[in-house]
Structure formats: structure tokens, C-alpha cells
Design brief:
rod-shaped, about 250 residues, 4 strands
């Protein structure tokens, strides 16, 4: 059998042309599509890996945030408890201070009322004692109670210590007018006795006699900005203390 080399050659040429045509118009596009798809798959895999990494980081961030939130919650609760305890203590201290102030005001008011009551008792007892003393002295002696007071006042002036007498003499010498204050009116004889006794200490230019109903029972001499007196206030004060003891 003879080989037709022309036909063989033509077929080989046709085959090569077919290969070239397939490579040019079919194989390369397919390769490009496959490469493009492969690149797309690679890109998607990289995107997935990136998203997975971001998701993992986000998860860690959330976990860290949750831990921080739990820690902050504990700190906030602890601070809130501490602040509540501090506020409670402050309110208790403020309430205690208010109670102490109220107690102090109450004690002051009670003391003031006791003093007022003592003053009333002092006045009542003094008036009664003055009336009773006057009646008793009038029945036992020829001199009235007023005369006894004058005599006792003059005796006290005579019995003053030397230092006090020097002070009184200086006051009498410096003052133009000496004031004698009594609760009751003094007669001329009583006034003369007082003038005579004062002149023995130091001569005075003028002597003024005044009355003061606030004096319970006694006489006061004022000169040089000072005063010398004798009255029963101190005795009544002792009586007042005794009367107020049950109240205290």
C-alpha cells in the first residue's frame, strides 16, 4: 500500500492549524478564565482569612471589653457602697450635731427659766422677809427696820479694811457729788448720820439722796465711778440656791 505523503502532509498541516486555532481561540480564553477564577478563589480565600482574623480580633476585643466592664462594675459597686456608707455617716453625724444643738438650746432655755423662777422667788421671798422683818424689829426695838439698815450700813463703812477705805476716800475726794441710794426714803436724822460718817472719811461738796425700788433692802453709796453697798441680796441669793436645788 502506497502512502500519500501529500495527504499526510496536508492532514498534519491541518492538525497543526487546528492546534494553533484551538490554542489561540479556545485554550487561551479557557486558561484565562481558569486563571481568573483561580485568582478569584485566592482573593476570596484571602478575604475570608482577613475577615476571620478581624473577627478573631473583634472577639478578643469584645472579651477584653467584657472583662474590663466586669472589673469596672465591681469598682463602681465598691465606690457606690463606700459613698453610700460615707453619706450615711455624714447624715448620722449631722443628725447627732443637730440633736446636740437642740439639747444645748433646751439646757439653755431650762437654765433661763430657772433663773427667771429664781428671780421671782427672790423677789417674793425678799418682799415677805422685808415685811416680816419690819414687823419683828418694830415689836422688839424702838428703831424701825430702816434705822437698823442705816446703822448697819454706817458700821460697815467704819469696818472697811484700810486698803478699801483708802480707795473710798480717794473716790470721795475726786467726785463732786456723792450719791446715796436706798429703797425707802431717809429722814433728816438718818441723812445727817450718813453725811457725818462720810465726812469723817473725806469731805464732800454735795450729797444726793435717791430712791430705787429695785433694791430689796439696803443702802448703796456711789462715788468716783464705784459703789459700796450693804443689802440682804447675798443672803437671798443663798436662799435662792437652796430653793433651786430640787429644780436642778
Amino acid at each position: 500500500m502506497a502512502i500519500d505523503w501529500f495527504t499526510v502532509g496536508a492532514q498534519m498541516i491541518n492538525f497543526l492549524i487546528l492546534i494553533w486555532l484551538l490554542k489561540k481561540f479556545l485554550y487561551r480564553p479557557i486558561i484565562k478564565v481558569m486563571a481568573s477564577r483561580e485568582q478569584g478563589l485566592v482573593d476570596r480565600l484571602q478575604l475570608v482569612e482577613t475577615q476571620m482574623s478581624e473577627a478573631e480580633q473583634l472577639k478578643k476585643h469584645y472579651e477584653t471589653s467584657l472583662q474590663q466592664l466586669a472589673s469596672d462594675k465591681d469598682n463602681i459597686l465598691a465606690e457606690a457602697r463606700l459613698q453610700a456608707e460615707t453619706d450615711r455617716n455624714q447624715r448620722l453625724q449631722s443628725l447627732n450635731d443637730e440633736l446636740q444643738q437642740e439639747k444645748k438650746r433646751f439646757d439653755q432655755e431650762m437654765h433661763r427659766q430657772q433663773q427667771e423662777l429664781g428671780t421671782v422667788i427672790n423677789r417674793v421671798v425678799a418682799e415677805k422677809a422685808l415685811q416680816l422683818g419690819g414687823k419683828i424689829l418694830s415689836s422688839l426695838a424702838d428703831q424701825s427696820l430702816e434705822q437698823q439698815i442705816v446703822e448697819h450700813f454706817l458700821q460697815n463703812l467704819a469696818k472697811l479694811p484700810d486698803a478699801e477705805q483708802s480707795v473710798l476716800q480717794q473716790a470721795l475726794s475726786q467726785d463732786d457729788a456723792v450719791i446715796i441710794i436706798s429703797r425707802f426714803p431717809l429722814n433728816e436724822a438718818q441723812r445727817s448720820k450718813i453725811r457725818s460718817r462720810v465726812d469723817q472719811l473725806a469731805p464732800v461738796r454735795e450729797m444726793v439722796f435717791e430712791q430705787d425700788s429695785r433694791l430689796i433692802c439696803g443702802i448703796t453709796l456711789e462715788a468716783g465711778g464705784r459703789s459700796w453697798e450693804w443689802n440682804i441680796d447675798r443672803y437671798l441669793a443663798e436662799l435662792e440656791v437652796e430653793l433651786l436645788k430640787p429644780l436642778e
